Amino acid sequence: MKFFNYIEYLLKNILINFCLILISIFLIHFALGFNLVQNFRIQYSFEYIGKILIFNYGNVELNSQISVSAIFNPYFYTTFAILIIVLILSLVIGFAIAYNLAKSNNKVFKTLNAALTFLSAMPIFIIAPLLVIINKYLFLPSVYIDTFYGNLFNTILSLLTPILILCLLVLPLIISINYPIIYDIVKSEYYLWAKANGLSYKKIFWTILIRNWLSKFIEKIVLIYSYLLTLVLVIERFFYIPGQSFIFQYLKQEKYFNLLMYSILLNIVSIIMIKSASELAIFIFDINKKQRNIYLRRLKWIKNYSK
Fold first, then answer.
1. 235/228 Cα distance (integer angstroms)
2. Where are the transmembrane segments (predicted)?
3. Angle at the Cα of 296 (from 290 to 297), degrees rounded to 5?
4. If both were cysteines, with which of 229, 251, 289, 298 could 260 make a disulfide (CB 3.0 to 4.6 Å apart)?
5. Domain ranges (residues) in the chain
């Protein structure tokens, strides 16, 4: 029966988000079209919606017609790859710091958290040049090196500083989200009950801490992704990384209007897909129910709680 509930929820979610994407793209196309395209008509927006439904995203007129997806996708993949790497690193480090702060309030981690907060408060146009100067003393690349001009190792080296900056900037946000969640869990009755009954650290960590943390943290992932995306776009321009921001300088021209719309469409779809996945995960975790069944050492313990 639960399987059909998941399918029903998934289908409703897909339908709602599909309509949301179409409405958003129509309104954005209409608003931007009046500002960027001469003699623009509202029917062009309806025609554009019809085209994207058959996966026709338009072309760009250069020396010849080139599909906007062929132009934009490589830049999108670069941005997305950097974003995912930073997100994973930041989640692991941020969780570790928040966990130690919540569990023992260790002075070392308190100092580290304060230092990260201080660094993240600095404007990005100050912290980035400082790290570039440090790079020069360490003989590290100060701008992105494409594999076309060097080997893969040099390309990876040139990405270390941008990734480090992004981690420093997003870590305080992740820690601030994680800390109250983890603190509530480690101070909860069911967590203390598990420790009092002699459960292993590994079982408590994965069965109680991680499961309950995921059910509450996952709803924040869209916020973190959106915030990190804006930071990545800024850092890309600073270090000349060929990501999405690299082509934004051309998008005010009328002949690149289809490219602009495709970039907006791709980012909206990616954000809504992440949002949908997180909502589905929350639904599966079923964190809003009034009773939670926890099986520990083959013993069923029911903990009633209010939302």
1. 10
2. 14-37, 75-102, 114-139, 159-182, 221-240, 260-285
3. 155
4. 251
5. 1-56, 71-291
